[in-house]
Amino acid sequence: MTRLDAAGRPIDRAPGSRWGDDLAVPIGLGTNTFGRTTDAAASHRVLDEFAEAGGVLVDTADTYSDGASEVILGDWMRARNNRAQVVVTTKCGNLPPFDGLSASQVAAAAEESLRRLGTNYIDLYFAHYQDDETPIEETAEAFDALVRVGKIRAIGLSNFTADAVCEWIDTANANGLAVPVALQPHYSLVHRKPFETELAPLASEAGLAVLPYRALGGGFLSGKYRTEADTEDRARGGGVRPLITPEGLGLLDTIDAIAQEHNVTAAAIALAWLMQSPTVTAPLVSATSGAQLDDLLAAPAVTLDEAQITRLDIASDGLT
């Protein structure tokens, strides 16, 4: 785990490297199902298997199951006595009564997350959603204050426009504040814009780590949703139903063909495509069982050739 100074700058990091470049397994475990569709015992089993496979980055948020996800993760770290071996990312700004990114809300939300997680620091703390009602300077100062007292080690931005990311970085640089080191955008083969057109060039220029969420398109890219009947009575059915089109199914056919060439699952191919993007540090994925997790953890061993990447690019072009 890379150490940071009081301003959130990495110590002993090689020039030109990004936050997260030293992750042993370049995949993050998303915990949005913990406490909702996955109970504590099942969640702990998934966490155990993720850790046993070498995974270290676990992503949560105060809004996930209204804080229950953070509690489950905190209980697991305490039971396993492994806090130092886990890279914890969590988020604030979207859970009442601490919604928004004013200085007081950010400070209060951080205290609540620390309490639920049972830790005295958060490795990477995200502003979950852009808050146009609060000046970015106020929010940047609030996050910087958390860095300076050691409650968070680095700052990330999720669901921010490119203009807002630039404004935060410029404000931080102009005022000697801790600068954001990571983005968490919505990005996958079925949702390529606005990340590719607006955020990817910025991430590359600013050296920002990129941790995409919904990396499997809400489960669509795993291939389990091919008809409207497949979406019935499924928690994510409504979100993937619009993707069941000739174009969407054509993309699944392309993924399936490439998966057969590598003898892996469709999900592993969709993740491999993300992981081979030069701007992506680690996609975030959710799993409710060890079997699901095994499929996902096969992705880092897959190397797509240029022709396969082009086939995927063409098949997914125009879906978003």
By DSSP, the count of extended strands is 8
In one word, what is the shape?
globular
For the biggest sheet, the summary is:
8 strands, parallel
Rg from alpha-carbon coordinates: 19 Å
CATH homologous superfamily classification of the domain at 1-184: NADP-dependent oxidoreductase domain
The helix/strand series, from N terminus to C terminus, equals EHEHEHEHEHEHEHHHHEHH
Low-confidence stretches: 1-12
Number of helices: 12
In spatial order, strands of the major sheet run: 7-6-5-4-3-2-1-8
Fraction of residues in helix: 40-55%
Q: Roughly how many Å apart are the termini? A: 36 Å
What's the rounded overall pLDDT mean?
Answer: 93
The fold-level CATH name of the domain at 1-184 is: TIM Barrel
CATH architecture type of the domain at 1-184: Alpha-Beta Barrel
CATH class of the domain at 1-184: Alpha Beta
Structural class by helix and strand composition: alpha/beta
Q: What brief labels describe this structure?
A:
320 residues, alpha/beta, 8-stranded parallel beta sheet, 42% helix, disordered N terminus
Short description, anyone?
The protein has twelve helices and eight strands. It is of the alpha/beta class and 320 residues long.
Structure overview:
The protein is of the alpha/beta class and 320 residues long. The chain has a domain at 1-184: TIM Barrel (Alpha-Beta Barrel). Helix content is 42%, strand content 9%. It has twelve helices and eight strands. The chain has an eight-stranded parallel sheet with strand order 7-6-5-4-3-2-1-8. Helix 4 (136-148) links the parallel strand 4 and strand 5. It is globular, with a radius of gyration of 19 Å. Residues 1-12 have low confidence and may be disordered.
